[in-house]
Amino acid sequence: MKVAIVTDSNSGITQSESTVIGAFVLPMPFIVDEEEYFEDINLTQDEFYKKLEADADISTSQPAIGQVTELWDKILKEYDEIVHIPMSSGLSESCNTATRLAEDYNGRVQVVDNHRISVTQKQAVLDAVKLAKQGKNALEIKDYLLKTAKDSSIYIMIDTLKYLKKGGRLTPAAAAIGTLLRIKPVLQIQGGKLDAYAKVMNPQIGKQKMIAAIKKDLETRFAKLYNNGEMSLEIAYTNCREKAEQFAQEVKSAIPNIELTYINPLSLSVSCHIGSGALAVACARIMK
């Protein structure tokens, strides 16, 4: 069986990188001032942040049904099966839509609700590609990804409350107080949903809290995997590569006996709600 791996651009995998990895990437659409754009097609990271900071009206959207099925149909002319790994159903309806569409493909398309996004979703894609190369069929790959879906964790420190307020996730009064006090929220993604974790008034303390949290996860929830060398660290950021590289050095100093696999931009779907300057540390299971 020849199995293709498909994901969306929320994984952080670019169109050019996808050809190196050996996967297919469905670009996520955005509506900017009533005009539709597609991530990494006609909307770059730099262009996105310029529009965001210029207070453009930006909203996320799921891919149109025709875009999904057109890609699948094209792939299935060359491949026997597809494993489709969209962003977590806890953050978008695109996973549920893809699952319904797959019902018309007689088992040739397996959609995986991997409960992940960004760097942890990317790791799931890399594992799926490896399994496909080992000769596993689509259902076997799906079973593995479902079994290991929650073997990941993300902590994100936000630099500004502006976009949480703009998106209605924070009241104007709370945003005003938080801005006045220079509060930096630390959020977490466990099992695919974005939740509050801590509030800090100093970015350095926020970074220390994130490092402590991810270290605790590795030593408790993921202790067996961690001790077996089956966990990796990842750094993610929004429009602040230099800060992310410095943070990566701090993480590696605090947790030296684990591989830091990559430093990637956060998904633009998350960036819509948190803006520039955010830093994140993540851990994810890697297939040995």
Topology of helices and strands:
Blueprint: E1 3-8, H1 15-21, E2 24-26, E3 29-32, E4 35-38, H2 45-53, E5 58-60, H3 65-75, E6 81-85, H4 94-102, E7 109-111, H5 118-133, H6 138-147, E8 152-157, H7 162-166, H8 172-180, E9 184-190, E10 193-200, H9 203-219, H10 223-227, E11 231-237, H11 241-254, E12 260-265, H12 268-274, E13 279-285
Parallel strand pairs: 1-2, 1-6, 6-7, 11-12
Antiparallel strand pairs: 3-4, 3-5, 8-9, 8-13, 9-10, 11-13
Helix pairs in contact: 5-6
Give a quick set of tags describing it:
12 helices, 41% helix, 13 strands, alpha/beta, four-stranded parallel β-sheet, 24% strand, 288 residues
In short:
The protein has 288 residues and is an alpha/beta fold. The chain has helices at residues 15-21, 45-53, 65-75, 94-102, 118-133, 138-147, 162-166, 172-180, 203-219, 223-227, 241-254, 268-274, and strands spanning 3-8, 24-26, 29-32, 35-38, 58-60, 81-85, 109-111, 152-157, 184-190, 193-200, 231-237, 260-265, 279-285. Helix content is 41%, strand content 24%.
